[in-house]
Amino acid sequence: MSSTWVARRRKRRTRGGLPGLFKMAAVIAAVTFAIVLLIRFATRGTADDRFCEGVYVDGVSLGGMSYDEGAQRVLGRVQERLSGTFTLTHGDRQWTFTPSQFGAHLSADAEAQLQQAWNWGKTGTAREKREQAELLKANPQYYDSEIVYDEAMFTQFLESIAGELSVPAVEATVIPGPNEQLTVEPSRDGLGLSVEDLRSTLDAAIREGSGAEIALQTHVLKPARTTEDTLQNTQLIVDYATSTKASSSNRTKNIRRALQAFDGLEVRPGQTVSINEVVGPRTVERGFFEAPEYNGTEIISGIGGGTCQASSTLYGALLLANMDIVERQSHSMTVAYVKASMDAVVSLQRGREKDLRFTNPLPYSIFIYTHVDQEKARVRIYGPQNAYEIQLDHRIVDQKPPKKSRYVPDTKGKIVYYKDEEPVLKTEGKDMVKSVGMRIYYDRATGQQVDIQEFDLDTYYEKQPEYWVGVHERGFEG
């Protein structure tokens, strides 16, 4: 079933109902003419053969007219309303249409409206007829028909015009470049034309019943992200670093190689990032080197040793940027480059995979830049300034030193030769530590603590300190 759109004339008291079916505009003249003949036949020969003053049909004052005259006048008004040419303009562009293009026709209550208008002053006694005529002078009666359209056709026409005139707004975008160069492509306003507003304007014009030239009014479309807004929300918000002074050359190279994968990375609102996915496999072919790394409570040499310091440095920066941490694990033992509960271990070892994943909960993108040298591994983040100043800390829940030490024989006698010599420290031990990470929020204006967020109760195992001991007995000199 096709839908219809109805353009109504302003009506003060009485109005006819809508038809059940559409008719083509070309049929209207024949239908109206048949109505005229019918009414003429019904009233021929009567004494009261004039419309009373104060009755209107479709805006036509019928007072003093005969039935024929009034019907012909209404017919002319109908034809005028249906065949009027409308021109829509915008600058040097034009669109022309007539209501009949969209299957427009008058509702089928014209006969009833004419009959009701005619009946005023035609029934009852002479006195009653006079009273009706007097009543009309103070209270005119209006009978307006309705123009019915094929709504789908008309809407398609309006939407095609709106589509031609509409220019979408362009949001400002940030293009990350090397060396922390962030280029902001400026935003641009767009143009829009409301189909509903255009429909209302044309409806009002068609109700007036004559062709017209209508200047279309477009409105400015503002982008959701303007240049100014984007610049304001792309500020340096985090500068976080860990020390690489104690790292070997190969380990520093691995840290640099891992963090290079994040240099210039944009993380969009709602986007979740996996460190393992961004960095990828740690292999020699991909530029990683052999360096010390943890294997449980042992320190071994492996390809990519130092990648965990890269992830831990990134972890601290992400906490300060107020990112949501989706996945994170601590090392098996404490590390020297960050406090307890401030580290983040990553591993691609099959069956023992560990990852650092985070989500950007902010309404703006963040941009990550990294730099690694022999002094520091640094992560800097650009984005919207947080409402609060954030600081990181941890709370020690439990801490115990190793109960025993491990002694390693110096079979070559390079460090300790004799058994009775004092053992020499080979590697330091590590305490057993239980700790909780903390993200603390402070009011920027007053410096007062506003909130504290505790996360991840971490357990770090102890590591026994190792000592060199001699293996030789002292002899006697001759």
Explain the overall architecture.
- By secondary structure, the protein is an alpha+beta fold.
- 26% of the residues lie in helices and 32% in strands.
- The chain is built from ten helices and 29 strands.
- The strands form ten sheets. Strands 2-8-3-4 form a four-stranded mixed β-sheet, with helices on one face. Strands 15-23-22-16 form a four-stranded antiparallel β-sheet. The chain has a three-stranded antiparallel β-sheet with strand order 1-9-7.
- Helix 1 packs antiparallel against helix 2 (67-83) and helix 8 (249-260) crosses helix 10 (307-320).
- The longest helix is centred in the first third of the chain and has 17 residues, at 67-83.
User: Averaged pLDDT, please?
Assistant: 87
Low-confidence stretches: 1-47
C-alpha termini separation: 124 Å
Strand content: 25-35%
Rg computed from alpha carbons, rounded to a whole number of angstroms: 44 Å
Number of DSSP E strands: 29
Structural class comes to alpha+beta
Shape: rod-shaped
What is the percent of helical residues?
Answer: 25-40%
Please count the helical segments: 10
Largest sheet: 4 strands, mixed
Q: Reading side by side through the largest sheet, how are the strands ordered? A: 2-8-3-4
